[in-house]
Design a protein that fits this description.
Layout: E1 8-13, E2 16-21, H1 31-46, E3 52-57, E4 62-64, H2 70-73, H3 88-97, E5 102-107, E6 110-112, H4 114-120, E7 124-128, E8 133-135, H5 149-157, H6 159-168, E9 172-173, H7 174-180, E10 185-187, H8 189-204, H9 208-222, H10 228-243, H11 246-257, H12 263-266
Parallel strand pairs: 2-3, 3-5, 4-6, 5-7, 6-8, 7-10
Antiparallel strand pairs: 1-2, 8-9
Helix pairs in contact: 1-3, 5-6, 9-10
């Protein structure tokens, strides 16, 4: 990464970019942090060496406390029209969600409001048992979650549970978040990074084109405008596009040569990707 960050500690190695939020005292998602998130997203998108983006926090008590209240309170009170363009915050979250890389949020500590909306823009979320709480307090002060919370959360947990979180304005712990599907897994602190590092390393070892194609295919399936037949056609096209890549052919041949499709091989370890 070439950009100097003030609020993010960014390190890239072995196909993995790790960005650690370090914005005392509570990791407030303000304009400055949002700007650095936008820059980070653009740089990761343009970096062909990066396969995985991990974002975590330097403060074990706060992932992101919430979005800066001024981002909402400074909006004009007389503008109640529906806008065609997305807000800056929502545009940034959509850019993050649309990255052709695997994205992982590692959540430790409090994460509320805009912090949750930021976390929901990632492909995967992993939370620390015993320390992580997630919440949406917006309705309690007379507004609604306006950074994607009302749109993303029901896809993760369903309508009834989303409304329990949003209307109830009470925190949920990591175990509940896992049971509901808000996060992928909730793990004890000592296990959390072992799991995430192993997962990120596996993803980073795979071809970037396959990662991007898999994400696109899954997103097609979740698009309400796409029927199943159309989705299957798009999936088939993406499969054929990945098969056309020389690296894919080489990997497939290496797996066959390693003994795939034999009983002994299939009952043993998964194939290792060929050396690049």
């Amino acid at each position: 990464m070439h950009q100097d960050f003030r609020l993010l500690r960014v390190v890239s190695a072995d196909g993995i970019c790790r960005a650690t939020i370090d914005h005392p005292p509570v990791n407030l998602l303000d304009v400055d942090l949002l700007t650095e998130i936008e820059i980070l997203t653009n740089q990761v998108a343009a970096d062909n060496e990066v396969r995985v983006l991990i974002v975590d926090s330097a403060d074990p008590e706060f992932f992101i406390a919430h979005a800066d209240v001024s981002l909402i309170s400074d909006l004009p009170a007389d503008d109640t029209a529906r806008h065609d363009e997305l807000s800056r915050f929502n545009a940034a979250m959509q850019a993050l969600r649309g990255l052709p890389k695997g994205t992982i949020a590692v959540i430790e500590g409090a994460c509320r409001g805009g912090g949750c909306e930021f976390a929901m823009a990632f492909d995967m979320r992993y939370a620390a048992l015993g320390t992580t709480v997630l919440g949406h307090p917006e309705v309690s002060v007379g507004i609604i979650p306006g950074g994607g919370g009302t749109q993303r959360l029901p896809h993760l947990v369903g309508r009834a549970r989303a409304l329990e979180v949003i209307l109830g304005c009470r925190d949920i712990d990591a175990a509940t978040a896992q049971a509901w599907g808000y996060v992928n897994r909730a793990l004890p602190g000592e296990e959390l990074w072992r799991f995430v590092d192993k997962l990120a390393g596996r993803i980073a070892s795979y071809p970037e084109e396959a990662i991007a194609a898999a994400k696109r295919a899954v997103d097609v399936a979740l698009d309400p405008r796409t029927d199943l037949t159309t989705g299957l056609r798009i999936e088939d096209q993406l499969l054929r596009e990945t098969l056309a890549l020389p690296d894919t052919r080489r990997r497939l041949q290496a797996v066959i040569e390693a003994g795939a499709q034999t009983r002994e091989f299939e009952l043993g370890a998964a194939p290792k990707p060929p050396a690049t």
